Amino acid sequence: MQAVLLKGNQDGYQLILNQSASFTEIIAELKRLFDKLAAEPSSLEAARLSFDVLTEDRILKSGEKKQIEDLAATYPKFSIHKISSNVMTVTDAYQLKERENVHLISRTIRNGQEVKLNGDILFLGTIHEGGKLITTGNIFSMGNIAGILHAGYPNSEEKLILGNIHNAQQVRVGEQFDVIDDEKIDDNDQVVAYVNDLHILAYGKLKELKQINPKLYNRIGGQ
């Protein structure tokens, strides 16, 4: 099993850390890789090499991130530009709220109730079956959803719903809607509901957001 994959891009290098490998294995392989790169003639000629680190679906602790950064810093011409993952944490969501005009909703929406807003929503509450959350923007759901989510109201099909919608009664994006059943989507918080090129409501993973909606991907800090 390869713990670290090195890929070149126009801005430098990307290091992809295998989420199945132990952190000890990753550090050991990073050191071997850095030693090899430092000895290459092209590296010796470069003013500086910058690395973007992708941790896939693994969330690194702050100490683990620092360990990677400190390791790179032992090589005079190496630096870590960014460490990112395919996973949105609660902290990421709050940071998004701080950067953007995002409504934070943590209330309970009961059967027969309807909450309608303009703009993006970070939802941390509960929607009972028969309850509705409707907005003109995107919905970032980190709550308990058994009711109806409607992003892009009334007809904006470029909006998205992100989060765990496994138990939702129905999801809508613009004018497209889908009734959820247990086998249709995964029971996790990394689902993206979007309208595809055929104008059909489809489902993807958060790690696919760059392909699904590059504008939103860049907006929430993707590179």
Structural features:
6-stranded mixed β-sheet; 223 residues; Pectate Lyase C-like; cell division; 18 strands; 6 helices; 2 domains; 5-stranded mixed β-sheet; septation; MinC_N_1
Give an overview of the whole structure:
Residues 105-195 form the Septum formation inhibitor MinC C-terminal domain. Residues 4-83 form the Septum site-determining protein MinC N-terminal domain. The structure is a single chain. With 223 residues, the protein is an alpha/beta fold. It has 2 domains: 4-84; 90-219, Pectate Lyase C-like (3 Solenoid), CATH 2.160.20.70. The chain has 6 helices and 18 strands. The strands form 4 sheets. It has a 6-stranded mixed β-sheet with strand order 5-8-11-14-17-18, covered by helices on one side. The two termini are 27 Å apart.
Query: How much helicity do the residues have?
Result: 10-25%
What structural class should be given to the helix and strand makeup? alpha/beta
Report the count of strand segments. 18
Reported for the largest beta sheet, the result is: 6 strands, mixed
H/I helix tally = 6
Task: From the alpha carbons, calculate the radius of gyration and give it in angstroms.
Answer: 21 Å
Beta-strand proportion: 25-35%
User: Any idea of the CATH topology of the largest domain?
Assistant: Pectate Lyase C-like
Average pLDDT works out at 86
State the domain count. Answer: 2
Between the first and last Cα atoms, what is the distance in angstroms? 27 Å
Q: What is the overall silhouette?
A: elongated
Instruction: Please report the first level of CATH classification, the CATH class of the largest domain.
Output: Mainly Beta
Family: Belongs to the MinC family.
Organism: Secundilactobacillus malefermentans
Function: Cell division inhibitor that blocks the formation of polar Z ring septums. Rapidly oscillates between the poles of the cell to destabilize FtsZ filaments that have formed before they mature into polar Z rings. Prevents FtsZ polymerization.
Pfam families: MinC_C (PF03775), MinC_N_1 (PF22642)
